[in-house]
Amino acid sequence: MKNIFKLLTILIIITVLISNCTKKFDEINTNPKTLTTANLDASTYGFVIRTTIYFQMWLGNQLSFQTGKNLYLDVYANYFATTAPNFLSDRYVMVGGWLSGIFNNFYVRSATHLKYALDYAKENDLAVEEAMMKIWKVYSYNRYTDLVGPMVYSSFGNMEKSVPYDKQEDIYTNFFKLLDEANAVLKANAGKTSAIFATYDPIYAGKVDLWQKFGSSLRLRLALRVKYVKPELAKTQAEKAIAEGVMTSNADNGWVKTTTDWYNTYTLITQWGEFRMSADMESFLKGYADPRVSAYFSEAKAPDLSDDPAGLVFKFEGMRNGQSKNDRSAFNFNNMNSDMAAPYLKAGDKGPNMFVMRAFECYFLRAEGALEGWNMGGTTESLYKSGIETSLAENGFANLKNLKGEVYSTSTLVPASPGADGSAPTVIQAPVSTVPVAFMTGGTKEQKLEQIITQKWIGLYPDSGEAYAERRRTRYPKLFDRLDSENPDVPKTSIPARLTYWSNEYNTNNAEVLKAITMLNAESSNPQGDKANTKLWWDKKP
Q1: What is the domain extent for residue 441?
Q2: Within the chain, how many helices (H) and strands (E) appear?
Q3: What stretches of 323-379 show up as alpha helix (H) in DSSP?
Q4: pLDDT (tens digit, 9 = 90+) per residue, 452-484?
Q5: Confidence of residue 30 (pLDDT cuts 50, 70, 90)
Q6: Which residues pair with 354 in a beta bridge?
Q7: Is 464 within a domain?
């Protein structure tokens, strides 16, 4: 960590990258597109805002996107399975170098620029802009603390060689505080647009009302995250979010607009042929005759039509997670299974915009809150249905029909068998989940929760970080076990409860990492130290 903070000092004192600079940090002093603090002002501050947002979304960043999002989050959400023989994170191996890349990248790039954005706004009395960046801070740090637990947070930027960690509970407490502060300012400036953000904000172009809805929707997400550890806090925060006003239509959705400089990194890594659609996605999308499949994936080059349901030709194929190295070498999984949809496959293209948070998720969060008896402005069933319909419309299926021409939300279809896996062609796999799409009015509370989270999981694709967090929090959706695990702490019948701390941090901030592990154990219901089976503070579902 001390190396990171040396870089932080250099970055804040000497220079800040502008929007289309993607050079490595060791090239920063020779980059002609850098800006010094001597000529930073309200106009050039906008460049900092832009990079702060782009860096957090991994746009145009091959290394941390692949080793972090794709090789961990995408496969732990079970959206994809890896096909490259030497990529063993799908078998729960924690690769130290990959983890270092994920977190070093966050602290060097995203967190550094975010701190500058917040400090500059505060020092120059830019209350609205500071409020927006407080929301972005919550969004950014939440993605990382939900991967590891305690992390460097309140002491980030202390310019010391030793940097303390914060407990996850304390981080969440501060999250809600920042959201309170941001909401108060944004509500007081309702209807306005930030002149600084108007040009440089790639999400909402500085529109105060949309940032406010984003902040309150984020509050709702975090409220449900703590449901099993702090139920009263969860209820209070969720109902506060509804009172403030959350996203209710796709016009409210937060999307980071991509450019050829800041491109969707899937358009690069899909060229390498190292992952394909999971058997779980096939099971749900085929069984539900889900039209979103064509927005998510491409048809397989060599599809197996023998396992398609009656009356449905389904050329999209998925593979089991956790394939052995030998099988990944022996079988052409890339040919047998589906790649991402066409917009993600265009090399050199800016690719699809990257989502931050969307209205359909808010409906499912509200549905879960209503299931608990909280005041969510609707019934569990009505909010569940709205979540499905909003996701379908977002993906271009405004007629709200499934592939069989039926109304999707009232269909009684259930998950289907994904058929035989390429590495075991004689074994027909039974579906793991049996819940239908149509709301189970007479079902148990757990059955209804499973329906809510299953549909949210489908809609979140490919937001694997959030999907992975929800899998750990709720234990849903029900997905296939790994074929095998090479991590002695995580059996193939389970999933990692967290990622472990990265190797470089042990080398540069060792004393504080050891303290963090003590914090982690104290907050966990399964204290195992810095291992992948140690549950996070909020992971308390019985």
Answers
A1: 279-320+357-474
A2: 22, 6
A3: 325-330, 333-336, 359-371
A4: 999 999 999 999 999 999 999 999 999 999 999
A5: very low
A6: 256
A7: yes
DSSP 100: H
Please state the length of the chain: 542
Total tally of structural domains belonging to the chain? 1
In a domain, 424, yes or no: yes
pLDDT in tens, 190-227: 999 999 999 999 999 999 999 999 999 999 999 999 99
> Percent helix, strand, coil in the chain (nearest 5)?
50, 5, 40
Residue 95 lies in a domain: no
What's the CATH number where 303 sits? 1.20.120.840
Characterize the bridge pairing of strands 354-357 and 254-256.
antiparallel
Question: How far does CA 463 lie from the centroid of its chain?
Answer: 4
Please tell me the distance from the alpha carbon of residue 78 to that of residue 312, in angstroms, as a whole number.
24
Distance of CA 270 to the CA centre of its chain: 19
**253 Cβ neighbours under 8 A, 6+ residues apart:** 247, 355, 357, 358, 359, 394
Of 392, 418, 394, 426, give the one whose Cα is nearest residue 300: 418
Q: E strand or H helix at 533, and its extent?
A: none
Tally Cβ neighbours within 10 Å of residue 306: 8
Residue 446 forms part of a structural domain? yes
